[in-house]
Amino acid sequence: MKLKGWKELKPGAVITDAGNSVEFKTGSWRSFRPIWKEENCIQCLFCWIYCPDMAIKVKDGKRAEFDYDFCKGCGICALECPGKKGKKAIIMVEEGK
Amino acid sequence: MAQVVAVTGNEAVANALRQVNPDVCAAYPITPQTEMMQRFANFVSNGNVKTELILVESEHSSMSACVGASAAGGRVVTATSSQGLALMYEILYIASGTRLPIIMPVVNRALSAPLNIHGDHSDAMGARDTGWIQLWSENAQEAYDNTIQAFRIAEHMDIRLPAMVCLDGFIISHSIERIEYLEDEEVKKFVGEFKPLNPLLDTGHPVSYGPLILTDYYMEYRKAQDEIASKVSGIVLKVAADFEKMSGRKYGLFETYRLDDAEIGLVILNSAAGTSKDVVDEFRDRGIKAGLLKPRLYRPFPFVETGEALKHLKAVCVLDRADAFGGSYGPVFLDIATSLYPYKEKPVLINKIYGLGGRDYLPEHAELVLSELAGIAKTGSVRSYKEYIGVRE
Question: DSSP label at A20?
Fold first, then answer.
């Protein structure tokens, strides 16, 4: 996104376009990346409930991929994930590895 | 027809606010402003205005309530003095940075400690760089006139900045003077209907106020705010021209008194300028070319015009009713010195600190200063660049 110059700004930093936080891609803050292991997923949707950033997509009532544009890598989903037979369906891996 | 009355400065400004009939007023009492808001509260109780009066628990809250009401889209006023202004400090920046045209009479009073309730300029000087417009007033008439003009200046769509109207505590706020009131209808027409800009209450166009602006945009917003300062002088003059048509009373960025051919001059704010003008006349009668400059628009400071008005003098004394502790000179001196900095030929400048905590400024003080200036103009030698006057050793 091209940054605006000072002449283009609204007085007093007022935001006049509602719902524009979708343009602010916070996924770049992430240092750990959650990986979904579908074979260990029991479709409990705990990850969807616990995610503070609505970064778990759900399609037709089933768990779908992460929304990496907005996942900050907090790891709450991985912590809450019950997995299957002791094996987690979400694991965290360091970004860039 | 103008109505001639005998009123206090506080009463005059309260009446100006009644005539404007703002949407919201959030106020907290503090000497010597209390009488102003008390009188305005009477207008509210008696149904003379339709203003929503919010009685808050502190000045921090009064300014915060003003910010909220102004962002909501209302025409908003408050008033304060001294410690009250100091307590507002944090929110003053929020009002100006958010570009909210709140109008606030400031009845100038000394700051504690030691505790003192009388008139000096320490309070408003501390707030001079908060991004607010400041109009200073010599007497009750000017305070009344400045209050009415402040609405037009602050609310101008090219400006949208909050404005303080400064008047001296007790000396002006509590002294009864003869002043001329405008007709209610004239004032109403002059200030016009309030035009909100991005109001929060316009639910058809939802907006957010007060976002977090980090390293990528903060400087751009600050640059935009700095740029408005250059537009204020022009609008102050335009509003003054309209005001003169209505009232017959002339205002500028500053007042010059017998300054055009002067060799020595005083620069002094507010009520003490009146005393000084009498002494300037006495010196003129003795054949000494004395003059005076009284700043009116002190923020944003019209430094180019001020420098131009003073550059031909031989010696100038800037009198400050506040000191800048740990700095070099008083605050007005620093601005005047800056305004003269670009000129090769310029007057010798000296600084006197006077009248702190309401200490009387007497004609004798102006006489001493003008005599000293006459000596400097003749010999070029300066005894002291900065000193307190009217103080016991």
Answer: G
